[in-house]
């Protein structure tokens, strides 16, 4: 026993001595000057900590998304922005945004938010008619701004916990509840097929592509824009808190 | 007699600036956090024709996988259609080439008829990874050499696409101090022959300023150990506004709106500035530590990848701060290269005192700052007054860069680069 212990102790002692730094001469187990264990507060919930059991996978997908964004998504979006007049871009955004009132209406009803539901309904009716199928948004000019509700929020209102943080391929930050909400919404959209839009989109994948590009066009965010090595953590915190507020309000 | 006249002139100048200057915040911390609400801003174009470009500064440098996205130095160029003067702008501590203030300044200079090249701060991780020779930023002379190299590379890259009449230089916060060192470097190297240089809200001593900013985190009620509870209380305030008003965006005007609803205490504002600065400092410390293998927060035998959780490193890095970055990373790093150098010498070198003689005689360099700039230590404002004399525009309020977009400030900036301030 002691024969094993002595060399181990010697090793430990050696590791504790300060060794002149030279490249490649870093002793195994040498500690950093400041380590987490030294400052850890065991009785405190850290703001930056978010339930993220799949972190390595999520980080991998985050990197994939950033590469996809840089190689394909952004160049396509920039090409779209270059060849399309701003006026047309805004009309495209309005049409898709107007269609999303249907989702907001349905989810407001599911949450029992009658005022919100009627606002979405009125916005949809006026913008679809006077606003020429949603090309224009006279309701916002009249002071009735858009409010969004989605199935993730509805599930949250019903008491479903957010669940672990997830990064979805291409779609980006999410959590288990929002992912289920997204899938459910897609299925309901297909099944209900409001005004035949869903089946039209099914026959015309270019419309789906346009919708995706329009969304990328509207989201100003760029991956690694912060430059921070901790961007993954910061985005995770912001997403989680933002969704928490969306559910609470 | 002369001194009395000078004093009177100073007093007179001060009164003129105080009169009719309608920047709204008299509290320096309010100004620093909220900036300039849009009704007080200069009218600027909504968009300018700009392009983001990448520059490979060191072709043989291997970028670690952890920083794979920093494959090139990123900068912005804004072009005029015709021959025009070109101005380089250097961002403040930890800021990127397209930070909010940098974008505002692009509009100011574009409207005034300049081509603009916006550069990230040498303390921004993108710069540390791709363009810093030592990858341990903070020594002004070294940072200036790195910047000068980048400026020449960037200009070379775009020279075929613009016609330049003359070169100008500016920067805000840490970028202002770096601009002064770059200007001095250019006197000898002569690549640009800058016609005029404007320093906006510079530190006098980098060390003094980071010590002040590092210390602001102590304003958290209950001290830094209470950070998490403080964050939750801030979050709850924003949540309340979001619930009541049903909108949330993090523009200055939203902050102004939140401020008007319920003005936060001075301690709270100090804590917010302190936290924002600590996050910047954490980025710098972590990036530099990973690249130089200094063993400050990352064990020297550990190589991190993009799949590794960095959350605990974040918690530590935020607590360490900038002063300890200087003491435990920067100083040992340079002590190895310059045996026997004392910390005090490095601190002195990273201050405007190191080039005071040059600054006193450099007619082309102007200074714009505020009496209540929070990054200045006692006595430093008077020092700036004495060094720059009539080349200084000192506002009575504005905090640290809070009033940069105010219409009077913008007019003064444009006037400086045009006819100049003499005769004001």
Q: What's the structural blueprint in terms of helices and strands?
A:
The complex is a heterodimer of chains A (249) and B (424).
Chain A: H1 2-16, H2 36-39, H3 55-83, H4 86-110, H5 114-129, H6 138-141, H7 151-157, E1 165-168, E2 172-175, H8 176-192, H9 197-203, H10 205-218, H11 231-248
Chain B: H1 2-18, H2 28-34, E1 50-55, E2 73-78, E3 84-90, H3 100-111, E4 115-119, H4 125-130, H5 140-158, E5 164-172, H6 174-189, E6 196-200, H7 206-215, H8 227-245, H9 252-261, H10 266-292, H11 311-337, H12 343-349, H13 356-361, E7 365-370, H14 380-388, E8 392-395, H15 407-417
Describe this structure in words.
The complex is a heterodimer of chains A (249) and B (424). With 249 residues, chain A is mostly helical. Chain A has helices at residues 2-16, 36-39, 55-83, 86-110, 114-129, 138-141, 151-157, 176-192, 197-203, 205-218, 231-248, and strands at 165-168, 172-175. Chain A has one domain (55-248). Chain A contains 11 helices and 2 strands. In chain A, helix 3 packs across helix 10 (205-218). The longest helix of chain A is centred in the N-terminal third of the chain and has 29 residues, at 55-83. Chain A starts with a helix and ends with a helix. Mean pLDDT of chain A is 81; it is low at 1-24. Chain B folds into 2 domains: 13-204 and 348-417, 3-Layer(aba) Sandwich (Rossmann fold), CATH 3.40.50.1820; 211-345, no CATH class. Chain B is built from 15 helices and 8 strands. In chain B, helix 5 (140-158) crosses helix 6. The two termini of chain B are 23 Å apart. The chains are: A mainly alpha (249), B alpha/beta (424). Chains A and B meet through helix 2, helix 3 and helix 11 of A and helix 8, helix 10 and helix 11 of B.
Question: Could you provide a short overview of the structure?
Answer:
Chain A is built from 11 helices and 2 strands, in the order αααααααββαααα. Chain A has a two-stranded antiparallel ribbon. Mean pLDDT of chain A is 81; it is low at 1-24.
């Amino acid at each position: 026993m002691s024969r094993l212990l002595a060399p181990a102790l010697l090793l430990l002692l050696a590791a504790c001595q300060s060794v002149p730094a030279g490249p490649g001469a870093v002793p195994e187990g040498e500690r950093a000057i400041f380590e987490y264990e030294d400052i850890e507060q065991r009785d405190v919930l850290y703001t930056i900590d978010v339930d993220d059991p799949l972190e390595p996978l999520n980080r991998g997908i985050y990197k994939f998304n950033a590469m996809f964004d840089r190689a394909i998504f952004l160049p396509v979006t920039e090409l779209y922005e270059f060849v399309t007049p701003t006026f047309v871009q805004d009309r495209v955004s309005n049409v898709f945004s107007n269609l999303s009132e249907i989702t907001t209406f349905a989810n407001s009803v599911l949450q029992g938010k009658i005022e919100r539901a009627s606002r979405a309904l009125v916005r949809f009716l006026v913008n679809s008619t006077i606003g020429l199928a949603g090309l224009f948004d006279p309701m916002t000019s009249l002071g009735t701004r858009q409010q969004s509700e989605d199935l993730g929020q509805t599930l949250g209102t019903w008491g479903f916990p957010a669940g672990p943080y997830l990064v979805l391929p291409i779609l980006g930050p999410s959590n288990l509840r929002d992912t289920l909400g997204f899938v459910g919404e897609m299925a309901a959209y297909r099944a209900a097929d409001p005004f035949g839009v869903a089946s039209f989109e099914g026959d015309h994948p270019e419309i789906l592509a346009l919708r995706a590009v329009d969304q990328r066009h509207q989201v100003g965010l760029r991956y690694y824009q912060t430059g921070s090595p901790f961007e993954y953590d910061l985005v995770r915190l912001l997403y989680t808190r933002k969704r928490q507020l969306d559910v609470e309000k | 007699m002369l001194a009395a006249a000078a004093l009177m002139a100073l007093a007179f100048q001060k009164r003129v600036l105080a009169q009719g200057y309608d920047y709204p915040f008299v509290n320096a911390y309010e100004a620093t956090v909220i900036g300039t609400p849009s009704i007080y801003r200069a009218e600027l174009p909504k968009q300018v024709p700009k392009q983001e470009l990448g520059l490979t500064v060191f072709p043989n440098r291997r970028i670690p996988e952890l920083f794979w996205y920093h494959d090139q130095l990123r900068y912005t160029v804004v072009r005029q259609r015709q021959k025009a003067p070109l101005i380089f702008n250097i961002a403040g501590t930890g800021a990127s080439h397209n930070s909010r203030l940098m974008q505002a300044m692009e509009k100011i200079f574009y409207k005034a008829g300049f081509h603009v090249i916006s550069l990230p701060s040498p303390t921004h991780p993108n710069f540390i990874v791709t363009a810093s020779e030592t990858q341990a930023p903070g020594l002004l002379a070294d940072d200036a050499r790195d910047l000068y190299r980048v400026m020449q590379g960037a200009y070379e890259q775009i020279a075929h696409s613009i016609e330049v009449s003359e070169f100008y230089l500016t920067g805000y916060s840490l970028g202002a101090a770096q601009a002064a060192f770059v200007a001095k470097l250019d006197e000898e190297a002569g690549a640009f022959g800058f016609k005029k240089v404007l320093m906006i809200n510079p530190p006098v001593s980098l060390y003094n300023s980071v010590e002040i900013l590092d210390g602001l985190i102590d304003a958290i009620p209950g001290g830094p150990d209470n950070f998490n509870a403080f964050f939750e209380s801030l979050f709850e305030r924003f949540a309340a506004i979001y619930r009541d008003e049903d909108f949330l965006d993090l523009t200055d005007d939203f902050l102004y709106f939140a401020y008007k609803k319920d003005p936060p205490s001075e301690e709270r504002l100090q804590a917010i500035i302190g936290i924002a600065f600590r996050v910047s400092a954490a980025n710098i410390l972590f990036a530099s530590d990973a690249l130089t293998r200094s063993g400050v927060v990352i064990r020297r035998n550990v190589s991190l990848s993009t799949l590794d959780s960095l959350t605990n490193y974040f918690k530590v890095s935020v607590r360490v701060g900038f002063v300890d970055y200087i003491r435990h990373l920067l100083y040992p790093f340079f002590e190895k290269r310059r045996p026997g150098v004392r910390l005090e010498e490095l601190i002195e070198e990273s201050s405007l005192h190191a080039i005071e003689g040059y600054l006193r005689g450099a007619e082309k360099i102007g200074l714009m700052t505020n009496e209540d700039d929070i990054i200045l230590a006692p006595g430093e404002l008077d020092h700036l007054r004495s060094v720059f004399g009539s080349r200084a525009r000192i506002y009575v309020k504005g905090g640290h860069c809070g009033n940069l977009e105010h219409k009077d400030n913008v007019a003064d900036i444009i006037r400086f680069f045009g006819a100049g301030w003499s005769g004001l």
